[in-house]
Sequence to fold (317 residues):
Amino acid sequence: MDYFDMHCDTIYELSSYALYCKAGGTLLKNDGQLDLTRTARYGHYAQMFALFCGASPIQTKEEAHIRFTHLLQTAHNAFAACSDRLMHCKTADDFHTAERQEKAAAFLSVEGAELLQSEADIQAAIDAGVRIVTLTWNHRSCYGCGASFDNDAGLTEKGVQFAQSLSQRGVFLDVSHLSERGFWDLTECIPGPIVATHSNSRAICPHVRNLTDAQFRAVIQRSGLVGINLYVPFLTQRRRANALDILRHIEHFCELGGENHLCIGADWDGCDRLPDGIDDVTGMERLAEILAQHGYSDIQIQNLMYDNAKRFVTANF
Ligand SMILES: [Zn+2]
Fold:
C-alpha cells in the first residue's frame, strides 16, 4: 500500500531537543515510531516532517533563530544521510521524481510559527521547501494562541500580517493547534486553501485540539486538507483507543462531505499514547485492513492513505 503522512515530529526527536529520546538513532533506523527501515514496506511513501517549535515557550527572537536553525540543520543532515532512499522534495515536480525513482518523498513543514521571527529565517524556511506552517503550537505566541491555551483568543495583528505574507508567497497555513477564534480570524485574512495536518473531529471526541463541524466544512470548502491524528486523547475520552475509534472520525468527516479532503497526519514521534494494535508507522497497514473490513473500497482507502494528499501537493506545491 501507499502512504502519505502529513505530520510527524521525528526531526525533533532526532535533534538535541528530543522529548521522548526514543528515536535516538537515525532516520534510517531508530527506536522511535518512524524510520525508513519500517516505511520501506510501503509502495510509495511520502512524509511531511515538521520542524517543531518545542514544548517550552520561545522567549526571544534569538532563541527562535537558534531553535529553527538547529532543527533545519538536523533535517538536512537526516535527509542527506538517507539520500539513497529518500528525496528532499520542495515542489510537486520533486515529488513526482521521488515517486518515479521509488524513493521516500520528504517534505518540510513548521509546527509553531513562533520559530520564524525574522525575515531571514522565513526566507530560509521557504528556501528549504517549507510550504506548510502551523500558526501556533499550544502556547500563546507573537502570532496567536493555541486552542489548548485559550480557544477564544484570536490572531494578533502581527499574526494577521505574517499569515498574509506567507500566503502570498505560496505557503499554506496549518490550523492544527490554533484556537477556534484564531481559525476564523485566519479565514477572514487569507484566501485559498487552509490545512489541518493533524486534527480530528470535535463532534466525535470533544477535545479543544479537534475541529468543529463548521471548521471542517470551512477547510473543505477551500479545497484544503485534514489529516487524521492517532493521539489517543484526540480520538476518544476513554483511557485507551483502538482502530475503530480512528474509523469513527473518518466516517464522520466523510459524512460531512470530506472524503476527498481527508488524509493521515498520524503525529508519529509526537504521541506518547497510540491506539491498541498500532505501535508505530507500520500500523497503517492495520488501519487499512480495518477500513476494508468495514466496507471501504480500495479506491477510498487509497484516497485516504495517499491520493488526497498527493492531489493537494500536485495542485499547490
Ligand atoms: Zn502537533
The pocket of zinc ion is lined by residues 111, 176-177, 198, 270 (CB under 6 Å). Residues 205 and 236 are 5 Å apart (CA to CA). The first strand starts at residue 3 and ends at 8. The domain at 3-316 is CATH 3.20.20.140 (TIM Barrel).
